[in-house]
Every structure is written in C-alpha cells, then in structure tokens.
Design a protein that fits this description.
GO terms for molecular function: ATP binding; ATP hydrolysis activity. Helices cover about 35% and strands about 20% of the residues. It has about 270 residues and is of the alpha/beta class. The chain has a six-stranded mixed beta sheet, with helices on both faces. Strands 2-1-4 form a three-stranded antiparallel beta sheet, with helices on one face. It has two domains: about 160 residues, P-loop containing nucleotide triphosphate hydrolases (Rossmann fold), CATH 3.40.50; about 80 residues, no CATH class. The protein is globular, with a radius of gyration of 19 Å. The site of adenosine-5'-diphosphate has 11 residues, from strand 2 and helix 1.
Length: about 270
C-alpha cells in the first residue's frame, strides 16, 4: 500500500516525550490506515500508554507531530477528543463509580449532544430532546455490548468482565473513527479474551483500532500491523509474522524479567 498522508486516518511522526530527565518516547512514528487494527506492544514501561495519551490529545509531545486525516487534530483537550472521532478505553476501567452504567455511557455519547461537555455534569444547557436521544443511543450501545440489563446498576456492583463491556460501550457510543484500546484483555478469562478478539475484528468494519495488549495470542490474531516499543523507541514494525520472527523483539521481552512469567513470552514463540 502507498503511504501518502491523507490515506492515513492518524499518523505520528518523530514523537518524543520527556518527563523531566526521563525520555518516555524517543522519535516514535506510527501510521493507522482506516479500518485497520494496529497493535502496539512492548515491555512494561516501554511508553505505550504515553503514546496513547499523545495520540488521543491529552498529552502534548515534547517534539513531533500528530496528523489526523492529513491535518493537525482540532482540539488538544480531553473533551475535544470524541468530537474529533477518536475514542479510547483506559488501562484499568476508569468508569465513574458514582454514576450508573447508563450515565457512564451517556458521558461517552456527549459528542452527539449540542449542550457542550459540561452540560453533562451540570445538567444545564441541554435540551430535553438531546437528553432523550443521548439516553436512547447509550441504551443501544449497552445492548450492542450485551449489558443493557445492568443500565441502572452502579458499575462497581458488576463482575469485571461486564464492567469492561460497559467501558467499551462508553467508547463506542460516540461512533468513533478510531478506537484506542489500552490493555482491554487484562483481567479477563481465556474465554472472555476469545470473545474480545471477535469484538475487535467486528470493530474494524466501522473504525480503525490501535490495541495496546500483553496477550500475544490476541495481538497476533487480530492485528494487521504491529509496532514494538522498547524504552520509548520503535524497535520493530511489520505484520504479526514479521514481528514474531524479529530477534530484537524476542530479546526485548526476554530481557525483562518482570514480564517473563506472563504470556508476553508468546512473542518469542
Ligand atoms: N506522567 C508521568 N510522569 C513521569 N513519568 C511518567 C509519566 N507517565 C509515564 N511515565 C514514565 O514513562 C515511561 C513509560 O510509561 P508508560 O507509557 O506508562 O509505559 P507502558 O504503558 O508501556 O507500560 C515509564 O518509565 C513511566 O514511569
Ligand atoms: Mg501502559
């Protein structure tokens, strides 16, 4: 495939992030084509979440550029994100514990409202019609993710796997063009991870996906393209087969004792 800027939904070029003396990302490049699933892997501390924070606009890089559909992303604040067409889930759940499942998803649907981001919290400035429509969309998203029957529960009362589905519903309700998933399989059973693989493949019919994940079987199964980070640098990119065969990738994982008990060793298999 040719790689002109406009063919990419999102691209990062030369992204560097420094936190004081620590270089979390060092000259990182990444391209996401529409409808593709891109895996972002690497040992703990490699910079994966930091790159997500840059891609989603919540962290301004020390150097480098992000291009969304050939232009700089319009907003650099969290509440601009969904309006841009980028949605994310977080490492962990990040659901609002004091809001019902339904209200959590209504929060994600806010880009479809006219009242602005703070109307959601304050209840001010939004028409009743908007409110009804948002709730209907949020219910439809809960149904799509199989958790509609829990709409009026508090998230903390649900099993972890169901809370993860609520988090996915919240991310997808805004009908994003790009979905960033930060370790969606963590804490799930093998069976749940299998179902997640089917879901991610289903997402890519409607949107591109960038997936940060330690479960290598999942990554190798669903990704079209993989980028491997280690100590903030891209050490390998390619198809799942190419990356798996790259000795640098094996070395990065085997050189990280904290990770060797987990399934990250799948990269070396
Ligand atoms: N807000 C921050 N302030 C200082 N250091 C940070 C911050 N966020 C991440 N880091 C550091 O940046 C590096 C990359 O972290 P992170 O992106 O979370 O890695 P990963 O998601 O790949 O495990 C780590 O060394 C981490 O400690
Ligand atoms: Mg992380």
């Amino acid at each position: 495939m040719t790689t002109t800027a406009t063919e990419h939904l999102l691209r990062a070029d030369g992204v560097t992030v420094r936190f004081g003396g620590l270089t979390a990302l060092d000259d990182v490049g990444l391209q996401v084509a529409p409808g593709s699933v891109v895996g972002l892997i690497g040992p703990n501390g490699a910079g994966k979440t930091t790159l997500f924070n840059v891609l989603s606009g919540v962290l301004r890089p020390t150097a480098g550029t992000i291009t969304w559909k050939g232009a700089p992303p319009p907003g650099r604040r969290t509440h601009h994100l969904a309006r841009t067409g980028i949605a994310r889930t977080f490492q962990g759940l990040n659901l609002f514990s004091m809001m019902t499942v339904l209200d959590n998803v209504v929060a994600g649907a806010d880009r479809l409202a006219t009242g602005g981001p703070f109307s959601l919290i304050t209840g001010l400035g939004r028409h009743h019609r908007d409110e009804r429509e948002l709730r209907a969309r949020a219910m439809a998203a809960l149904e799509r993710f199989g958790v509609a029957e829990y709409a009026h529960r508090m998230p903390g009362t649900l099993p972890y796997g169901l809370q993860k589905q609520v988090a996915l519903a919240r991310a997808c309700v805004s009908e994003p063009e790009l979905l960033l998933l930060d370790e969606p399989a963590s804490g799930l059973s093998g069976e749940q991870i299998g179902a997640l693989a089917d879901q991610i493949r289903g997402f890519s019919r409607d949107m591109a996906v960038v997936l940060v994940e330690h479960h290598m079987d999942l990554v190798m199964e669903v990704c079209d393209h993989i980028v491997v980070l280690n100590f903030g640098r891209v050490i390998s990119t390619g198809t799942p087969q190419e990356v798996q065969a790259d000795p640098q990738v094996t070395e990065a994982y085997l050189g990280t004792p904290a990770d060797t008990s987990g399934d990250v060793n799948g990269a070396a298999r």
